[in-house]
Automatic annotation (TrEMBL):
Official protein name in the record: ABC-F type ribosomal protection protein
Signal peptide from the UniProt entry: none
UniProt keyword terms in alphabetical order: ATP-binding, Coiled coil, Nucleotide-binding, Repeat
InterPro entries: AAA+_ATPase, ABC_transporter-like_ATP-bd, ABC_transporter-like_CS, ABCF, P-loop_NTPase
Presence of keyword ATP-binding: yes
Residue ranges occupied by any ABC transporter domain in the UniProt entry: 9-270, 366-561
SUPFAM superfamilies: P-loop containing nucleoside triphosphate hydrolases
Length: 562
């Protein structure tokens, strides 16, 4: 996509945070952050759920105050902020909500009206000042194309699926997704100098996303967007800001540059870790070898040697002891300051390659459904015939509410059909990544992982080796983890426990793009069957281009069309 360059008069205008920190009660969300947004930059903010991405946007917008550091803003063209979960006044109508979202332009409009009224009644001595004020306000209003604002808002609502919305309707009666699209339409219509968008592709259909990308491509100002949409990242972002552990790290050359840089970082960490490990092993070997040599040296020789042999023995003894001492000191320093062990590449464990019980070959049928029907008093499903074999890749599509998740429940054996037959190979092992994530138990993360995998002795090492958690997370209760962390626990279990069928229900939800890339790479070597429900565009693009992927469509009413 092409990006419109700003005029020279706007080149110096920025929004910047320097040495910033945000603390909520005892929790430090962001610490010592520095970020400068230039006048035409396209910055995408990524990271795990709960990392502080939305907080960063709120700091840039000025709706969350820094507890340390400073925020500097020089943006006469204004800031528009489309939040993921916008809040409005309890009694506000849709019109009120739009006016609040577009308050700076509405105020410019009101200022022009007030100044014009004063000018009409002013004496000659006031006219020059008022004319200058009116000219300035009109210039700013016209720079935002204020006269076409309402038309752009209506067009945006229409393209985002809210055309014909009654503007007198109380805004609290709208769904969460509708309120988010209302805020997005207002932000895109505002022609603000800086757009701040929090997960703008959520709740949008393909047509809405296409329109969003068109609008962002011609946006004349700067953009900071929080998104997990890898297609949007690839097409739009010139820089990536990764939020992790309360810190920011910025990468250039777009999403591709980010992935390349992260891969380079992992290689460097691996080299440093291997060098540390080899040095430690070498020093420990020196201690062992010299200790053995020291044991072989006699403490003293016979008197007949006139002291020369004893002197030589003491010299050899002294050299061995010196080498042992230096090696032990080096070992102590290495263990005090170890090189961090990089995470292993995400891959399914070798246990996944085991065939299902009784399987005769790698293409053995694992699941067979025939004439499956669910009644109208609950979830509806109409499935005439479907077979799932080892190595199959099924991509399930269909509109929201059609019954895609219901189909997964049936295939997993969790929802019994009222009619028809569902057969599963005896001993089949099914792993789930569910769309709905439970609040979790009071068990610690480590205990929950150990209980689910049976790896009680090595649970900590196995879990940390995946790189999905920090050591400090292991003793936290699962119920206290963020949604993103609970999702990563599910990923950890899915790649650790043996299975023959992997069910993925919106697997990209709540996961950072880099982890999604690793998951897709790991699935290439998975020998079991994979059945996926996803709205993720990049996942669907890659799956759609593979000859081995079978498309299964679920139409409204639960009609399954393999």
């Amino acid at each position: 996509m092409t990006h419109t360059s700003p005029s020279p008069s706007r080149q110096h205008r920025v929004c910047a945070i320097r040495g910033g920190a945000v603390r909520f009660a005892e929790q430090v969300v962001l610490a010592e952050i520095d970020l400068v947004v230039g006048p035409a930059e396209r910055i995408a903010v990524i990271g795990d759920n709960g990392a502080g991405k939305s907080t960063l946007l709120r700091v840039l917008a000025g709706t969350v105050q820094l507890t340390a550091g400073e925020r500097a803003v020089e943006l006469p063209g204004g800031i528009a902020f489309a939040e993921q979960q916008p809040r409005f006044r309890p009694s506000a109508t849709v019109t009120d909500a739009l006016d609040d979202l577009l308050a700076d332009i509405r105020e410019l409009e009101a200022e022009i009206q007030r100044t014009a009224e004063r000018l009409a009644q002013a004496g000659p001595d006031q006219r020059t000042v008022l004319l200058a004020q009116l000219s300035t306000a009109m210039d700013r209003f016209e720079a935002r194309d204020g006269y076409q604002l309402d038309r752009r808002v209506d067009a945006g609502l229409d393209r985002l699926g809210l055309g014909g919305l009654d503007h007198s309707r109380p805004v609290h009666t709208l769904s969460g997704g509708e309120r988010a699209r209302l805020a997005l339409a207002a932000a895109l219509a505002s022609e603000a100098e800086l757009l701040l968008l929090d997960e703008p592709t959520n709740d949008l259909d393909d047509a809405g996303i296409a329109w969003l990308e068109e609008r962002l491509a011609v946006h004349r100002g700067a953009l900071v967007v929080v998104t997990h949409d890898r297609v949007l990242l690839d097409r739009l972002a010139t820089d990536i800001v990764h939020v992790e552990g309360g810190a920011l790290r910025r990468y250039g050359d777009g999403y591709t540059g980010y992935l390349t840089a992260r891969a380079s970082e992992r290689r460097r960490l691996l080299e440093e870790y291997e060098a540390w490990r080899q040095d430690l092993a070498r020093q420990e070997a020196l201690v062992t070898a010299n200790a053995f040599r020291l044991d072989a040296i006699p403490r003293k020789l016979e008197r007949a040697s006139f002291g020369h042999g004893a002197f030589r023995a003491r010299g050899r003894d002294h050299g061995a002891m010196g080498r042992i001492r230096m090696a032990k000191e080096r070992i102590a320093r290495l263990r005090t300051d170890p090189a961090p062990r990089p995470a292993d590449p995400l891959r399914f464990t070798p246990a996944f390659t085991e065939p299902a019980a009784g399987a005769a070959d790698e293409k053995a049928v694992l699941i067979r459904a025939e004439g499956v029907r669910l009644d109208d008093d609950g979830p509806r499903l109409r499935l005439d015939a479907l077979e799932v074999s080892a190595g199959d890749r099924l991509l399930i599509s269909g509109p929201n509410g059609a019954g895609k998740t219901t189909l997964l429940h049936v295939l997993a054996g969790e929802l019994a059909p009222q009619r028809g037959n569902l057969w599963q190979r005896p001993g089949i092992r099914i792993a789930w990544l569910r769309q709905d994530i439970t609040h979790g138990s009071r068990a610690t993360l480590l205990d929950a992982f150990a209980a689910a995998t049976g790896a009680y002795r090595d649970a900590a090492d196995e879990l940390l080796r995946l790189g999905l958690f920090h050591p400090d997370d292991l003793q936290r209760q699962v119920a206290q983890l963020s949604v993103g962390q609970r999702r990563r626990l599910e990923v950890a279990l899915a790649v650790t426990r043996p299975s023959d069928v992997l069910l993925l229900d919106e697997p990209t939800n709540h996961l950072a793009p880099e982890l999604l890339e690793q998951m897709e790479e790991a699935l290439r070597d998975y020998t079991g069957a994979v059945i996926t429900v996803t709205h993720d565009r990049r996942w669907r693009e890659r799956a759609g281009g593979s000859a081995m992927v079978r498309q299964v469509h679920v139409a409204p009413g639960g009609f399954v069309m393999p």
